[in-house]
Amino acid sequence: MTALDDLAGRYVDEFAALDPCAAAMMGIAGQDRLLTDYGPEGFAARADLARRTLAELGRAGVEDEAGRIAAAVLRERLEVDVALDEAGVREGFLDTTDGPVQRLRMALELLDQGAGTDWEAVHARMRALPRALAGLRVSLRRACGAGRVAARRQVLRSARECADVPGYLADLVARYGDGPLRGGLAEAARSASAALAEFGSYLSVDLAARAPERDALGADRYRLGVRDFLGTDLDLAETYAWGWEELARVESEMAVAAEEILPGEPLPAVMAALDADPAHRIGGAEAFRAWIQELADRAIEDLDGVHFDIPGPLRRIECRVPPVEAGVYYLAPAEDLSRPGTVWWTVGDPFADVVTWTVPTTMFHEGVPGHHLQLGVTTLNPRLNRFQRLSSELHPGHCEGWGLYAERLMDELGHYREPAHRLGMLAGGQRFRAARVVLDIGLHLELPIPAGAGFHEGERWTPELGFEFLRARKGPDPDSAVAFEIDRYLGRPGQAIAYKLGERVWLEARDAARRRAGAGFDLKEFHRRALDLGPMGLDRLRAELARA
Protein backbone atom coordinates (compact mmCIF):
# COMPACT_ATOMS: atom_id res chain seq x y z
CA MET A 1 0.00 0.00 0.00
CA THR A 2 1.36 3.41 -0.98
CA ALA A 3 1.10 6.57 1.10
CA LEU A 4 -1.57 7.76 -1.32
CA ASP A 5 -3.58 4.55 -0.87
CA ASP A 6 -3.33 4.95 2.89
CA LEU A 7 -4.53 8.55 2.68
CA ALA A 8 -7.46 7.56 0.45
CA GLY A 9 -8.45 4.78 2.84
CA ARG A 10 -8.30 7.05 5.88
CA TYR A 11 -10.33 9.67 4.07
CA VAL A 12 -13.06 7.12 3.27
CA ASP A 13 -13.20 6.03 6.91
CA GLU A 14 -13.48 9.62 8.19
CA PHE A 15 -15.94 10.59 5.47
CA ALA A 16 -18.18 7.61 6.29
CA ALA A 17 -18.14 8.43 10.01
CA LEU A 18 -19.12 12.05 9.28
CA ASP A 19 -21.73 11.21 6.64
CA PRO A 20 -23.33 7.81 7.32
CA CYS A 21 -26.22 8.52 4.93
CA ALA A 22 -23.85 9.06 2.00
CA ALA A 23 -21.81 6.07 3.17
CA ALA A 24 -24.95 3.91 3.02
CA MET A 25 -25.60 4.91 -0.58
CA MET A 26 -21.97 4.33 -1.52
CA GLY A 27 -21.90 0.88 0.07
CA ILE A 28 -19.32 1.78 2.72
CA ALA A 29 -19.53 -0.65 5.62
CA GLY A 30 -19.44 0.11 9.33
CA GLN A 31 -21.91 2.98 9.84
CA ASP A 32 -25.22 1.14 9.60
CA ARG A 33 -26.56 2.29 12.97
CA LEU A 34 -25.85 5.99 12.50
CA LEU A 35 -27.32 8.93 10.60
CA THR A 36 -25.60 12.01 9.24
CA ASP A 37 -25.33 15.12 11.41
CA TYR A 38 -26.99 17.78 9.28
CA GLY A 39 -26.45 20.43 11.93
CA PRO A 40 -23.92 23.26 11.48
CA GLU A 41 -21.20 21.30 13.30
CA GLY A 42 -21.67 18.35 10.96
CA PHE A 43 -21.36 20.49 7.84
CA ALA A 44 -18.28 22.21 9.28
CA ALA A 45 -16.62 18.90 10.14
CA ARG A 46 -17.12 17.55 6.62
CA ALA A 47 -15.73 20.71 5.04
CA ASP A 48 -12.74 20.58 7.40
CA LEU A 49 -12.09 16.97 6.40
CA ALA A 50 -12.00 17.96 2.72
CA ARG A 51 -9.53 20.79 3.41
CA ARG A 52 -7.27 18.70 5.63
CA THR A 53 -7.20 15.82 3.16
CA LEU A 54 -6.50 18.19 0.27
CA ALA A 55 -3.52 19.64 2.13
CA GLU A 56 -2.20 16.17 2.94
CA LEU A 57 -2.70 15.08 -0.65
CA GLY A 58 -0.43 17.89 -1.75
CA ARG A 59 2.36 16.33 0.33
CA ALA A 60 1.76 12.74 -0.77
CA GLY A 61 4.10 11.23 -3.32
CA VAL A 62 2.91 9.63 -6.57
CA GLU A 63 4.78 6.48 -7.55
CA ASP A 64 3.32 5.45 -10.92
CA GLU A 65 0.60 6.04 -13.50
CA ALA A 66 -2.06 4.48 -11.30
CA GLY A 67 -1.03 6.82 -8.50
CA ARG A 68 -1.12 9.82 -10.81
CA ILE A 69 -4.71 9.08 -11.79
CA ALA A 70 -5.78 8.25 -8.24
CA ALA A 71 -4.34 11.49 -6.87
CA ALA A 72 -5.97 13.56 -9.60
CA VAL A 73 -9.39 11.96 -9.01
CA LEU A 74 -9.26 12.53 -5.25
CA ARG A 75 -8.00 16.09 -5.67
CA GLU A 76 -10.78 16.94 -8.10
CA ARG A 77 -13.46 15.72 -5.67
CA LEU A 78 -11.97 17.50 -2.66
CA GLU A 79 -11.61 20.78 -4.53
CA VAL A 80 -15.26 20.64 -5.56
CA ASP A 81 -16.32 19.97 -1.96
CA VAL A 82 -14.34 22.97 -0.78
CA ALA A 83 -15.82 25.15 -3.54
CA LEU A 84 -19.36 24.10 -2.58
CA ASP A 85 -18.65 24.93 1.05
CA GLU A 86 -17.17 28.32 0.20
CA ALA A 87 -20.22 29.11 -1.94
CA GLY A 88 -22.51 28.35 1.02
CA VAL A 89 -24.40 25.70 -0.95
CA ARG A 90 -24.53 22.89 1.58
CA GLU A 91 -26.09 24.34 4.72
CA GLY A 92 -29.42 25.55 3.34
CA PHE A 93 -29.78 22.80 0.76
CA LEU A 94 -33.10 21.07 0.20
CA ASP A 95 -33.93 19.03 -2.85
CA THR A 96 -36.50 16.83 -4.54
CA THR A 97 -34.38 13.71 -5.08
CA ASP A 98 -31.19 13.73 -3.04
CA GLY A 99 -31.46 16.29 -0.26
CA PRO A 100 -31.09 15.62 3.47
CA VAL A 101 -34.71 14.47 3.89
CA GLN A 102 -34.38 11.96 1.04
CA ARG A 103 -31.05 10.68 2.33
CA LEU A 104 -32.42 10.12 5.82
CA ARG A 105 -35.29 8.11 4.35
CA MET A 106 -33.00 6.08 2.10
CA ALA A 107 -30.67 5.30 4.99
CA LEU A 108 -33.57 3.35 6.48
CA GLU A 109 -34.73 1.82 3.21
CA LEU A 110 -31.28 0.43 2.50
CA LEU A 111 -31.41 -1.58 5.71
CA ASP A 112 -34.69 -3.16 4.59
CA GLN A 113 -33.38 -6.46 3.23
CA GLY A 114 -36.30 -8.78 3.91
CA ALA A 115 -35.14 -11.82 5.86
CA GLY A 116 -31.64 -10.35 5.97
CA THR A 117 -32.66 -7.08 7.63
CA ASP A 118 -30.43 -5.95 10.50
CA TRP A 119 -33.21 -4.95 12.89
CA GLU A 120 -30.83 -3.61 15.51
CA ALA A 121 -29.54 -1.16 12.90
CA VAL A 122 -33.10 -0.25 11.85
CA HIS A 123 -33.96 0.42 15.49
CA ALA A 124 -30.87 2.57 15.96
CA ARG A 125 -31.51 4.65 12.85
CA MET A 126 -35.18 5.16 13.72
CA ARG A 127 -34.15 6.39 17.17
CA ALA A 128 -31.55 8.71 15.61
CA LEU A 129 -33.98 10.32 13.16
CA PRO A 130 -35.47 12.98 15.49
CA ARG A 131 -32.02 14.28 16.40
CA ALA A 132 -30.93 14.34 12.74
CA LEU A 133 -34.00 16.38 11.83
CA ALA A 134 -33.43 18.75 14.74
CA GLY A 135 -29.87 19.40 13.55
CA LEU A 136 -31.06 19.99 10.00
CA ARG A 137 -33.59 22.49 11.31
CA VAL A 138 -30.83 24.46 13.05
CA SER A 139 -28.81 24.57 9.82
CA LEU A 140 -31.79 25.70 7.77
CA ARG A 141 -32.57 28.46 10.25
CA ARG A 142 -28.97 29.63 10.19
CA ALA A 143 -28.85 29.63 6.41
CA CYS A 144 -32.17 31.46 6.34
CA GLY A 145 -30.69 34.15 8.58
CA ALA A 146 -27.89 34.58 6.06
CA GLY A 147 -30.41 34.91 3.21
CA ARG A 148 -29.83 31.41 1.80
CA VAL A 149 -33.14 29.57 1.46
CA ALA A 150 -33.95 26.90 -1.10
CA ALA A 151 -36.67 27.72 -3.62
CA ARG A 152 -40.19 27.27 -2.32
CA ARG A 153 -40.92 24.24 -4.52
CA GLN A 154 -37.93 22.37 -3.03
CA VAL A 155 -39.03 23.24 0.50
CA LEU A 156 -42.57 22.00 -0.14
CA ARG A 157 -41.38 18.81 -1.86
CA SER A 158 -39.28 17.98 1.18
CA ALA A 159 -42.28 18.67 3.43
CA ARG A 160 -44.40 16.22 1.43
CA GLU A 161 -41.66 13.61 1.72
CA CYS A 162 -41.84 13.97 5.51
CA ALA A 163 -45.53 13.12 5.33
CA ASP A 164 -44.87 9.97 3.26
CA VAL A 165 -42.26 8.30 5.47
CA PRO A 166 -44.30 7.48 8.63
CA GLY A 167 -46.43 4.97 6.74
CA TYR A 168 -43.30 3.15 5.68
CA LEU A 169 -41.99 3.10 9.25
CA ALA A 170 -45.24 1.57 10.46
CA ASP A 171 -45.00 -1.05 7.72
CA LEU A 172 -41.45 -1.89 8.78
CA VAL A 173 -42.54 -2.48 12.35
CA ALA A 174 -45.44 -4.66 11.18
CA ARG A 175 -43.10 -6.79 9.07
CA TYR A 176 -40.74 -7.33 12.00
CA GLY A 177 -43.30 -9.44 13.81
CA ASP A 178 -43.30 -10.28 17.53
CA GLY A 179 -39.59 -10.53 18.32
CA PRO A 180 -37.80 -8.91 21.28
CA LEU A 181 -37.37 -5.57 19.46
CA ARG A 182 -41.09 -5.18 18.72
CA GLY A 183 -41.78 -2.68 21.49
CA GLY A 184 -38.61 -0.69 20.90
CA LEU A 185 -39.21 -0.52 17.16
CA ALA A 186 -42.81 0.60 17.66
CA GLU A 187 -41.77 3.35 20.06
CA ALA A 188 -38.92 4.47 17.80
CA ALA A 189 -41.29 4.59 14.82
CA ARG A 190 -43.78 6.71 16.78
CA SER A 191 -41.04 9.11 17.88
CA ALA A 192 -39.57 9.34 14.38
CA SER A 193 -43.03 9.89 12.87
CA ALA A 194 -43.78 12.70 15.32
CA ALA A 195 -40.43 14.32 14.50
CA LEU A 196 -41.15 14.04 10.78
CA ALA A 197 -44.57 15.64 11.23
CA GLU A 198 -43.08 18.51 13.23
CA PHE A 199 -40.25 19.04 10.76
CA GLY A 200 -42.64 18.87 7.81
CA SER A 201 -44.80 21.53 9.46
CA TYR A 202 -41.73 23.74 9.96
CA LEU A 203 -40.88 23.41 6.28
CA SER A 204 -44.37 23.95 4.90
CA VAL A 205 -45.29 26.83 7.21
CA ASP A 206 -42.23 28.66 8.52
CA LEU A 207 -39.52 28.06 5.93
CA ALA A 208 -41.82 28.09 2.91
CA ALA A 209 -43.00 31.57 3.91
CA ARG A 210 -39.39 32.81 3.57
CA ALA A 211 -38.45 30.78 0.53
CA PRO A 212 -38.09 32.53 -2.82
CA GLU A 213 -40.58 31.77 -5.57
CA ARG A 214 -37.88 32.10 -8.22
CA ASP A 215 -36.32 28.74 -9.09
CA ALA A 216 -33.56 29.70 -11.54
CA LEU A 217 -30.15 29.68 -9.84
CA GLY A 218 -28.17 31.54 -12.52
CA ALA A 219 -25.01 30.88 -14.51
CA ASP A 220 -22.46 30.97 -11.65
CA ARG A 221 -24.31 28.46 -9.49
CA TYR A 222 -25.04 26.36 -12.56
CA ARG A 223 -21.36 26.19 -13.51
CA LEU A 224 -20.57 25.02 -9.99
CA GLY A 225 -23.19 22.31 -10.39
CA VAL A 226 -21.65 21.23 -13.70
CA ARG A 227 -18.26 21.02 -12.02
CA ASP A 228 -19.78 18.99 -9.19
CA PHE A 229 -21.80 16.51 -11.26
CA LEU A 230 -19.83 16.32 -14.50
CA GLY A 231 -16.25 17.25 -13.65
CA THR A 232 -15.94 19.52 -16.66
CA ASP A 233 -16.22 23.12 -17.85
CA LEU A 234 -18.88 23.76 -20.46
CA ASP A 235 -19.69 26.45 -22.94
CA LEU A 236 -23.28 26.67 -21.78
CA ALA A 237 -24.55 28.46 -24.90
CA GLU A 238 -22.97 25.83 -27.16
CA THR A 239 -24.28 22.99 -25.00
CA TYR A 240 -27.81 24.46 -25.00
CA ALA A 241 -27.73 24.67 -28.80
CA TRP A 242 -26.37 21.11 -29.02
CA GLY A 243 -29.20 19.90 -26.81
CA TRP A 244 -31.76 21.24 -29.29
CA GLU A 245 -29.88 19.63 -32.20
CA GLU A 246 -29.66 16.28 -30.42
CA LEU A 247 -33.34 16.40 -29.52
CA ALA A 248 -34.28 17.02 -33.17
CA ARG A 249 -32.02 14.15 -34.31
CA VAL A 250 -33.56 11.69 -31.85
CA GLU A 251 -37.13 12.71 -32.65
CA SER A 252 -36.44 12.19 -36.34
CA GLU A 253 -35.13 8.70 -35.58
CA MET A 254 -38.22 8.02 -33.48
CA ALA A 255 -40.48 8.87 -36.39
CA VAL A 256 -38.70 6.28 -38.54
CA ALA A 257 -38.98 3.64 -35.78
CA ALA A 258 -42.69 4.38 -35.31
CA GLU A 259 -43.30 3.96 -39.04
CA GLU A 260 -41.90 0.43 -38.80
CA ILE A 261 -44.38 -0.45 -36.04
CA LEU A 262 -47.60 1.10 -37.42
CA PRO A 263 -47.02 2.40 -40.95
CA GLY A 264 -48.82 5.63 -41.72
CA GLU A 265 -49.67 6.45 -38.10
CA PRO A 266 -48.24 9.53 -36.37
CA LEU A 267 -45.83 8.99 -33.48
CA PRO A 268 -48.30 9.87 -30.67
CA ALA A 269 -50.79 7.35 -32.04
CA VAL A 270 -48.13 4.64 -32.22
CA MET A 271 -47.07 5.27 -28.62
CA ALA A 272 -50.69 5.28 -27.44
CA ALA A 273 -51.30 1.97 -29.22
CA LEU A 274 -48.28 0.42 -27.52
CA ASP A 275 -49.48 1.69 -24.14
CA ALA A 276 -52.84 0.02 -24.69
CA ASP A 277 -51.50 -3.24 -26.12
CA PRO A 278 -51.95 -6.09 -23.57
CA ALA A 279 -48.69 -7.57 -24.87
CA HIS A 280 -46.91 -4.60 -23.32
CA ARG A 281 -48.69 -4.55 -19.96
CA ILE A 282 -48.12 -6.50 -16.75
CA GLY A 283 -50.64 -6.66 -13.93
CA GLY A 284 -49.42 -5.59 -10.51
CA ALA A 285 -46.17 -4.62 -8.81
CA GLU A 286 -45.01 -8.11 -7.88
CA ALA A 287 -45.51 -9.54 -11.37
CA PHE A 288 -43.68 -6.52 -12.77
CA ARG A 289 -40.82 -6.99 -10.32
CA ALA A 290 -40.46 -10.61 -11.41
CA TRP A 291 -40.49 -9.55 -15.07
CA ILE A 292 -37.68 -7.01 -14.69
CA GLN A 293 -35.72 -9.54 -12.63
CA GLU A 294 -35.93 -11.99 -15.53
CA LEU A 295 -34.92 -9.23 -17.94
CA ALA A 296 -31.88 -8.38 -15.83
CA ASP A 297 -30.85 -12.04 -15.49
CA ARG A 298 -31.16 -12.64 -19.23
CA ALA A 299 -28.96 -9.63 -20.09
CA ILE A 300 -26.20 -11.00 -17.86
CA GLU A 301 -26.48 -14.42 -19.45
CA ASP A 302 -26.35 -12.99 -22.97
CA LEU A 303 -23.42 -10.60 -22.46
CA ASP A 304 -21.09 -12.48 -20.12
CA GLY A 305 -18.05 -13.82 -21.92
CA VAL A 306 -19.11 -12.25 -25.21
CA HIS A 307 -18.91 -8.47 -24.86
CA PHE A 308 -17.93 -8.31 -21.18
CA ASP A 309 -16.44 -10.57 -18.55
CA ILE A 310 -18.83 -10.33 -15.61
CA PRO A 311 -17.38 -11.37 -12.23
CA GLY A 312 -19.28 -14.00 -10.26
CA PRO A 313 -20.51 -11.65 -7.49
CA LEU A 314 -22.12 -9.45 -10.16
CA ARG A 315 -24.04 -12.20 -11.91
CA ARG A 316 -27.10 -11.44 -9.80
CA ILE A 317 -29.02 -8.18 -9.53
CA GLU A 318 -31.75 -7.80 -6.95
CA CYS A 319 -34.79 -5.98 -8.37
CA ARG A 320 -37.08 -4.37 -5.80
CA VAL A 321 -40.12 -2.08 -5.62
CA PRO A 322 -39.58 0.67 -3.01
CA PRO A 323 -42.22 1.36 -0.39
CA VAL A 324 -42.55 5.08 -1.20
CA GLU A 325 -42.22 7.18 -4.36
CA ALA A 326 -38.52 7.19 -5.24
CA GLY A 327 -38.26 6.90 -9.01
CA VAL A 328 -35.96 4.33 -10.56
CA TYR A 329 -32.38 4.01 -9.37
CA TYR A 330 -29.51 1.60 -8.78
CA LEU A 331 -27.28 1.10 -5.76
CA ALA A 332 -23.97 -0.73 -6.09
CA PRO A 333 -23.04 -3.73 -3.95
CA ALA A 334 -21.65 -2.93 -0.52
CA GLU A 335 -17.87 -3.04 -0.41
CA ASP A 336 -18.02 -6.20 1.70
CA LEU A 337 -20.73 -7.63 -0.64
CA SER A 338 -23.17 -7.83 2.28
CA ARG A 339 -25.64 -5.86 0.13
CA PRO A 340 -26.16 -6.96 -3.47
CA GLY A 341 -26.37 -4.59 -6.38
CA THR A 342 -30.01 -3.46 -6.34
CA VAL A 343 -32.40 -1.85 -8.81
CA TRP A 344 -35.25 0.03 -7.13
CA TRP A 345 -38.25 0.68 -9.39
CA THR A 346 -41.22 2.69 -8.16
CA VAL A 347 -44.67 1.77 -9.41
CA GLY A 348 -47.79 3.80 -8.68
CA ASP A 349 -50.72 1.59 -7.77
CA PRO A 350 -49.26 -1.81 -6.72
CA PHE A 351 -52.30 -3.58 -8.20
CA ALA A 352 -52.56 -1.69 -11.50
CA ASP A 353 -51.07 -2.60 -14.88
CA VAL A 354 -47.55 -1.42 -15.66
CA VAL A 355 -46.68 -0.49 -19.26
CA THR A 356 -43.50 -2.31 -20.29
CA TRP A 357 -42.41 -1.32 -23.81
CA THR A 358 -40.12 1.41 -22.45
CA VAL A 359 -38.75 -0.75 -19.62
CA PRO A 360 -35.92 -2.79 -21.25
CA THR A 361 -33.84 0.29 -22.03
CA THR A 362 -34.02 1.42 -18.41
CA MET A 363 -33.08 -2.02 -17.12
CA PHE A 364 -30.04 -2.06 -19.43
CA HIS A 365 -29.17 1.37 -18.01
CA GLU A 366 -29.56 0.37 -14.37
CA GLY A 367 -28.43 -3.25 -14.66
CA VAL A 368 -26.09 -4.85 -17.20
CA PRO A 369 -24.27 -3.49 -19.13
CA GLY A 370 -25.11 -0.26 -17.27
CA HIS A 371 -24.67 0.69 -13.64
CA HIS A 372 -24.57 -2.81 -12.16
CA LEU A 373 -21.65 -3.80 -14.35
CA GLN A 374 -19.87 -0.45 -14.17
CA LEU A 375 -20.22 0.19 -10.45
CA GLY A 376 -19.86 -3.46 -9.52
CA VAL A 377 -16.61 -3.88 -11.48
CA THR A 378 -15.34 -0.70 -9.82
CA THR A 379 -16.25 -1.95 -6.34
CA LEU A 380 -14.37 -5.21 -6.94
CA ASN A 381 -11.32 -3.73 -8.70
CA PRO A 382 -8.18 -4.41 -6.59
CA ARG A 383 -6.10 -2.03 -8.73
CA LEU A 384 -8.06 0.96 -7.46
CA ASN A 385 -7.68 2.47 -4.02
CA ARG A 386 -10.60 2.47 -1.63
CA PHE A 387 -11.81 5.96 -2.50
CA GLN A 388 -11.84 5.14 -6.19
CA ARG A 389 -13.70 1.88 -5.63
CA LEU A 390 -16.44 3.54 -3.61
CA SER A 391 -16.79 6.99 -5.19
CA SER A 392 -18.94 6.23 -8.23
CA GLU A 393 -21.88 8.03 -6.61
CA LEU A 394 -19.76 11.20 -6.63
CA HIS A 395 -19.21 11.17 -10.42
CA PRO A 396 -22.65 11.28 -12.14
CA GLY A 397 -21.23 12.38 -15.50
CA HIS A 398 -19.10 9.25 -15.64
CA CYS A 399 -21.78 6.91 -14.27
CA GLU A 400 -24.95 8.24 -15.87
CA GLY A 401 -23.10 8.80 -19.12
CA TRP A 402 -22.11 5.13 -19.10
CA GLY A 403 -25.69 4.13 -18.28
CA LEU A 404 -27.03 5.99 -21.30
CA TYR A 405 -24.17 4.67 -23.43
CA ALA A 406 -25.20 1.16 -22.31
CA GLU A 407 -28.75 1.74 -23.58
CA ARG A 408 -27.44 2.69 -27.01
CA LEU A 409 -24.85 -0.10 -26.98
CA MET A 410 -27.59 -2.69 -26.51
CA ASP A 411 -29.26 -1.34 -29.64
CA GLU A 412 -25.98 -1.66 -31.54
CA LEU A 413 -25.61 -5.23 -30.30
CA GLY A 414 -29.18 -6.16 -31.29
CA HIS A 415 -30.63 -6.74 -27.81
CA TYR A 416 -33.92 -4.87 -28.24
CA ARG A 417 -35.93 -7.93 -29.15
CA GLU A 418 -38.98 -6.07 -30.41
CA PRO A 419 -39.32 -2.88 -32.47
CA ALA A 420 -41.38 -1.42 -29.62
CA HIS A 421 -38.46 -1.87 -27.23
CA ARG A 422 -36.15 0.01 -29.57
CA LEU A 423 -38.68 2.84 -29.79
CA GLY A 424 -38.74 2.75 -26.01
CA MET A 425 -34.96 3.27 -26.00
CA LEU A 426 -35.33 6.30 -28.24
CA ALA A 427 -38.29 7.75 -26.34
CA GLY A 428 -37.39 6.91 -22.75
CA GLY A 429 -33.62 7.15 -22.99
CA GLN A 430 -32.43 9.33 -25.82
CA ARG A 431 -35.24 11.88 -26.31
CA PHE A 432 -35.92 12.32 -22.62
CA ARG A 433 -32.24 12.91 -21.80
CA ALA A 434 -31.77 15.32 -24.72
CA ALA A 435 -34.81 17.26 -23.50
CA ARG A 436 -33.15 17.44 -20.10
CA VAL A 437 -30.14 19.26 -21.59
CA VAL A 438 -32.44 21.86 -23.10
CA LEU A 439 -34.56 22.24 -19.98
CA ASP A 440 -31.87 22.16 -17.30
CA ILE A 441 -29.72 24.84 -18.88
CA GLY A 442 -32.68 26.81 -20.19
CA LEU A 443 -34.52 26.91 -16.87
CA HIS A 444 -31.57 27.84 -14.66
CA LEU A 445 -30.21 30.48 -17.04
CA GLU A 446 -33.73 31.61 -18.08
CA LEU A 447 -32.65 31.44 -21.72
CA PRO A 448 -34.85 32.28 -24.71
CA ILE A 449 -36.37 29.45 -26.72
CA PRO A 450 -34.72 29.65 -30.16
CA ALA A 451 -36.38 30.34 -33.48
CA GLY A 452 -37.31 27.16 -35.29
CA ALA A 453 -37.98 25.21 -32.09
CA GLY A 454 -41.72 25.10 -32.79
CA PHE A 455 -42.45 25.83 -29.14
CA HIS A 456 -43.06 29.32 -27.70
CA GLU A 457 -40.23 30.71 -29.81
CA GLY A 458 -38.53 33.78 -28.33
CA GLU A 459 -40.03 33.32 -24.86
CA ARG A 460 -37.76 32.69 -21.90
CA TRP A 461 -38.00 29.42 -20.02
CA THR A 462 -40.22 29.19 -16.95
CA PRO A 463 -41.20 26.11 -14.92
CA GLU A 464 -44.65 26.28 -16.53
CA LEU A 465 -43.17 26.19 -20.03
CA GLY A 466 -40.83 23.42 -18.90
CA PHE A 467 -43.81 21.35 -17.76
CA GLU A 468 -45.62 21.88 -21.07
CA PHE A 469 -42.49 20.99 -23.05
CA LEU A 470 -41.79 17.83 -21.08
CA ARG A 471 -45.45 16.80 -20.87
CA ALA A 472 -45.42 16.41 -24.66
CA ARG A 473 -42.41 14.06 -24.39
CA LYS A 474 -43.25 11.91 -21.37
CA GLY A 475 -45.80 9.62 -22.98
CA PRO A 476 -48.31 8.04 -20.58
CA ASP A 477 -46.68 9.29 -17.39
CA PRO A 478 -49.08 11.17 -15.10
CA ASP A 479 -48.77 14.92 -14.66
CA SER A 480 -47.34 14.31 -11.19
CA ALA A 481 -44.36 12.47 -12.70
CA VAL A 482 -43.72 15.34 -15.13
CA ALA A 483 -43.95 17.87 -12.30
CA PHE A 484 -41.51 15.77 -10.28
CA GLU A 485 -39.00 15.93 -13.14
CA ILE A 486 -39.22 19.73 -13.40
CA ASP A 487 -38.78 20.06 -9.63
CA ARG A 488 -35.81 17.70 -9.82
CA TYR A 489 -34.02 19.80 -12.44
CA LEU A 490 -34.62 23.00 -10.52
CA GLY A 491 -33.27 21.49 -7.30
CA ARG A 492 -29.96 20.11 -8.61
CA PRO A 493 -28.43 22.39 -11.27
CA GLY A 494 -26.30 20.40 -13.70
CA GLN A 495 -27.25 16.89 -12.61
CA ALA A 496 -29.85 16.28 -15.32
CA ILE A 497 -27.40 16.93 -18.16
CA ALA A 498 -24.90 14.36 -16.81
CA TYR A 499 -26.58 11.60 -18.83
CA LYS A 500 -26.34 13.05 -22.33
CA LEU A 501 -23.06 14.91 -21.82
CA GLY A 502 -21.50 11.83 -20.26
CA GLU A 503 -22.73 9.62 -23.09
CA ARG A 504 -21.21 12.05 -25.59
CA VAL A 505 -17.78 11.68 -23.97
CA TRP A 506 -18.02 7.86 -23.92
CA LEU A 507 -19.03 7.75 -27.60
CA GLU A 508 -16.35 10.21 -28.67
CA ALA A 509 -13.69 8.28 -26.76
CA ARG A 510 -14.79 5.00 -28.34
CA ASP A 511 -14.74 6.53 -31.82
CA ALA A 512 -11.26 7.93 -31.22
CA ALA A 513 -10.02 4.54 -29.98
CA ARG A 514 -11.50 2.85 -33.05
CA ARG A 515 -9.72 5.30 -35.35
CA ARG A 516 -6.40 4.72 -33.59
CA ALA A 517 -6.68 0.92 -33.68
CA GLY A 518 -8.21 0.57 -37.13
CA ALA A 519 -9.03 -3.02 -38.01
CA GLY A 520 -7.52 -4.17 -34.72
CA PHE A 521 -10.11 -2.38 -32.58
CA ASP A 522 -11.58 -4.72 -29.95
CA LEU A 523 -14.80 -3.44 -28.35
CA LYS A 524 -14.60 -5.81 -25.39
CA GLU A 525 -11.03 -4.72 -24.66
CA PHE A 526 -11.98 -1.04 -24.97
CA HIS A 527 -14.71 -1.53 -22.37
CA ARG A 528 -12.36 -3.41 -20.04
CA ARG A 529 -9.68 -0.70 -20.17
CA ALA A 530 -12.22 2.08 -19.80
CA LEU A 531 -13.96 0.59 -16.76
CA ASP A 532 -10.62 -0.32 -15.17
CA LEU A 533 -9.85 3.41 -14.91
CA GLY A 534 -12.54 3.79 -12.26
CA PRO A 535 -14.89 6.76 -11.84
CA MET A 536 -13.71 10.32 -12.55
CA GLY A 537 -14.84 13.64 -13.99
CA LEU A 538 -15.53 13.88 -17.71
CA ASP A 539 -12.53 16.06 -18.57
CA ARG A 540 -10.20 13.56 -16.94
CA LEU A 541 -12.04 10.61 -18.47
CA ARG A 542 -11.60 12.08 -21.94
CA ALA A 543 -7.90 12.67 -21.34
CA GLU A 544 -7.21 9.25 -19.83
CA LEU A 545 -9.07 7.35 -22.55
CA ALA A 546 -7.03 9.27 -25.14
CA ARG A 547 -3.88 7.98 -23.44
CA ALA A 548 -5.07 4.37 -23.22
Structure notes:
Helix content is 64%, strand content 3%. With 548 residues, the chain is mainly alpha-helical. It has 2 domains: 3-214, no CATH class; 224-499, no CATH class. The strands form 2 sheets. A 3-stranded mixed β-sheet has the order 2-4-3, covered by helices on one side. Helix 1 packs across helix 2, helix 7 (152-176) packs antiparallel against helix 8 and helix 20 runs parallel beside helix 22. The protein is globular. It starts with a helix and ends with a helix. The mean pLDDT is 95.
Task: Kindly summarize this structure in a few lines.
This protein is mainly alpha-helical and 548 residues long. Helices cover 64% and strands 3% of the residues. It has 2 domains: 3-214, no CATH class; 224-499, no CATH class.
Instruction: Kindly report the average pLDDT value.
Output: 95
Shape: globular
Number of helices, where a helix is a run of at least 4 consecutive DSSP H or I residues = 22
Main β sheet profile: 3 strands, mixed
Strand portion:
under 5%
Strand order of the largest sheet: 2-4-3
The residue ranges in which pLDDT falls below 50 over 5 or more consecutive positions are: none
Total count of domains? 2
Span between termini: 24 Å
Helix percent band: 55-70%
Structural class label: mainly alpha
In angstroms, what is the radius of gyration? 23 Å
| E-strand count | 5
Order of helices and strands: HHHHHHHHHHHEHEEEEHHHHHHHHHH
